[in-house]
Amino acid sequence: MTASAGNTCAQTRRSGHEWVCILARYRKPSNVRSLFELLATFIPFALLIGLAWRTLAVSYPLAAAVSVVNGAFLVRLFVIQHDCGHGSFFTSRQANDWLGRILAALTLTPYDIWKRTHSIHHSVSGNLDRRGLGDVLTLTVSEYRARSAGQRLAYRIYRNPLFLFGVMPAFVFFLQFRLPIGLMHAGTRYWISALATNAAIAMVIGAGIWFGGLRVLLLVFLPTALVGAAAGMWLFYVQHQFEGTYWSKEADWQLHEAALEGSSHYVLPPVLRWLTGNIGAHHVHHLYSRIPFYRLPEVLRDCPELDRAQRLTMKESLHCARLHLWDEKGRSLLTFSAARSV
Fold first, then answer.
1. What phi-psi label fits residue 21: left (phi over 0), alpha (psi between -120 and 50 degrees) or beta?
2. What is the DSSP letter of 267?
3. Structural contact between residues 236 and 317, judged by C-beta atoms closer than 8 angstroms
4. In CA terms, which of 209, 243, 292, 304 is 20 to 30 Å from 186?
5. Which pLDDT band, with edges at 50, 70 and 90, does 249 fall under?
6. How far apart are alpha carbons 264 and 279 in whole angstroms?
7. In terms of Cα–Cα distance, which of 100, 146, 113, 117 is closest to 236?
8. What is d(CA 265, CA 242) in angstroms, rounded to the nearest whole number?
């Protein structure tokens, strides 16, 4: 990136639309760099599977521990699949799509279904009138109060961290993704995506059980998948569910402002930044989703205003798990207790 580009980024506060024009220069991926990132992720992932498998002969708890660690590399594989869905990993659309479909057997995520629903998420994020697909269910204070006692209890259970990050990841990745939920009548393409992914997963699991027995499923496959799913759910949550996030009714909603103000900049230690594919710079990603994940640090380096925007530390992110209701008047996410006084 040239010095002039950095200086352009460093100017005074800009609107979301202005940032889109600036960020366009970062959109081009490098096929060589992308291939390197893929190999640097998949090779350790495969080696850890092999190590966990071999360790089964020594210690079941140790094998499970290795598989838990491997969940971090599964998250990075998901980020690569995510970039494929945005057409930002390789320069070729076909290469992106086929890699995304191949990775689906590991991430448990049907590529074409997820690509469509995630595109919808990007197009309506922060719009109170278009909630429901590809996001975490969020009620306003008034909506919560208007619900019956049973409905309020169900919402409280859903938003409880133990349920949201313990039960929901397994439900979404193990069960919900097995059918084209949300796209049941959108065409055969999405049914093919779900069923083909299911068949590929069945072959991977079947091969593991055939050669290693049921213990491979329970101590190698499941720990990796569960950790990856839970970590992915947590990342998706804190990317949009923070105190000063953005929600507006359709009439006042602005796409680029929602991208900038409604997506966090999750500041992680270097190792975790690498393992999560820099997806913590989520405000930049929502402003311009065609930027490859490995170029997001360039944007933050060249654009100090974006580097400072929406920063959320790991310690601060823990508080986000207690935020449940959107206060339309105060324009802030609140805890259940704080909502009582609104």
1. alpha
2. E
3. no
4. 292
5. very high
6. 10
7. 117
8. 11
Rounded CA gap, 50 and 241, in Å? 37
Q: Is residue 133 pLDDT above 80, yes or no?
A: no
Contacts of 320 (CB under 8 A, 6+ apart): 237, 238, 241, 242, 243, 312, 333
> Beta-carbon neighbour count of residue 149 at 10 Å?
7
CB within 8 A of 137, min separation 6: which ones?
A: 131, 155, 158, 159
- How confident is residue 2, by pLDDT bands cut at 50, 70 and 90? very low
Please report, rounded to a whole number, the percentage of residues in the chain having pLDDT higher than 90: 88
What SS3 class is residue 58?
A: coil
Report pLDDT digits (tens) over 90-115: 999 999 999 999 999 999 999 999 99
Residue 203: other Cβ atoms inside 10 A: 11
- The Cα–Cα gap between 111 and 299 comes to 27
Strand pairing report for 332-334 and 139-140? unpaired
Reference 112, options 58, 178, 55, 193; nearest CA is: 193
